[in-house]
Amino acid sequence: MAGFDKVVTSYEQAMQGLKDGDTIIAGGFGLCGIPEGLIAEIKRKQTKELTVVSNNCGVDDFGLGILLKDKQIKKMVASYVGENALFEQQLLSGELEVELTPQGTLAEKMRAGGAGIPAFYTATGFGTPVAEGKEVKEFNGRPYILEESITGDFAIIKAWKADRYGNLVFRHTAMNFNPIAATAGKITVVEVEEIVEPGELNPSEIHTPGIYVNRVIKGCFEKRIERVTTRN
């Protein structure tokens, strides 16, 4: 079993090998299903010049947003940036390079990268600034643009449960970008709420098989709510 055991006991071990200039693919959607402790470790390490690929960049003081404060992120590839004032400030000042990508296209870029597919055609974005400089081809009378897939040096993921072999189960909407991001990293690190022994997870409930996972760490999560909404 020792050769298959992917559990590490410290965040330093979990993010070992991360270096300046790396590309990080991060799971999560807003503050839902984000690997809080792994992001905090990147902050602690003060790794710089990072390219980060994620649906968005958290908020000013939580999630990926904490990496903006010390300007650790050089480039952000995202589909939505509306909840982060510091992100907007750095974008407008030219301190942060931003590649805005339609949400479905971003998801497919990760999925395709994890599947070994270098590029794909999509109709989404044709006729908009998203399509500028990209190859256009017509299929059945409709124009499509060529989008390149994405892979990263690291993928940082949040899951509900994992066994020691790295098989993962996600919970409800925290699944979001995590399963596809998990496939697209050269090194995939997963922060989980619970670690169980091999054989305790029913094979039919596993969302991401351990073949994609390199390291697993048990985290402690704040699970902050991005925007609290209540009934009148």
Describe the structure.
Helix content is about 20%, strand content about 25%. With about 230 residues, the chain is of the alpha/beta class. It has six helices and eleven strands. It has a domain at about 20-100 and about 150-220: Glutaconate Coenzyme A-transferase, CATH 3.40.1080. The N and C termini lie far apart (about 55 Å). The strands form two sheets. Strands 1, 2, 3, 4, 8, 9, 10 and 11 form an eight-stranded mixed β-sheet that branches. It has a three-stranded antiparallel β-sheet with strand order 5-7-6. The mean pLDDT is about 95.
Helix content: 10-25%
Number of strands: 11
The oligomeric status of these chains comes to single chain
CATH domain class name of the domain at 20-100 and 151-218: Alpha Beta
- How much beta, percentage-wise? 25-35%
Give the averaged pLDDT, no decimals. 94
Main sheet, how many strands, which sense, barrel?
8 strands, mixed
Q: Kindly report the name of the CATH homologous superfamily of the domain at 20-100 and 151-218.
A: Glutaconate Coenzyme A-transferase
Q: SSE order in H/E notation? A: HEHEHEHEHEEEEEHEE
In the predicted model, the low-confidence regions spanning at least 5 consecutive residues are: none
Q: Terminal Cα separation, in Å?
A: 55 Å
What are the SSEs and their pairings?
Blueprint: H1 11-14, E1 23-26, H2 36-45, E2 50-53, H3 66-69, E3 73-78, H4 85-93, E4 97-100, H5 103-115, E5 119-122, E6 136-139, E7 142-148, E8 152-163, E9 168-169, H6 178-183, E10 185-196, E11 215-218
Parallel strand pairs: 1-2, 1-8, 2-3, 3-4, 8-10, 10-11
Antiparallel strand pairs: 5-7, 6-7, 8-9
